[in-house]
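Action item from last week, closing it out:
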Amino acid sequence: MSEFKNDGSPLPDLGSAPGIREKVIEALQSCYDPEIPVNIYELGLVYDVTVDEQKGEVGIRMTLTSPACPVAGSLPPEVEAKVRAVPGVTKASVEVVWEPPWTPEKMTEAAKLQLGML
């Protein structure tokens, strides 16, 4: 079964690092915006997860619901710390981007259902 990024593009082959990406996603699913009872991955705030299978380095491209988000200073460091704690990860970096802007359409169906939007 093929896996895809939130933007619909295929994920890179992780080669010799099986399981790291899945564990990183689990870590991302434990991060919440305190004002919204859905994790940041299901909210569609995570745009890209890259893994360097040789070095164990992970890069996260993510956004926030708005530039004025009250957790703008605390959420990205929390994400980085949780990803860095994943077994097999030697380095984690988080890049906050504003393009494309987040919209509720980026949420998974499960998130929309949880928030009563379906």
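Closing note: The radius of gyration is 14 Å.
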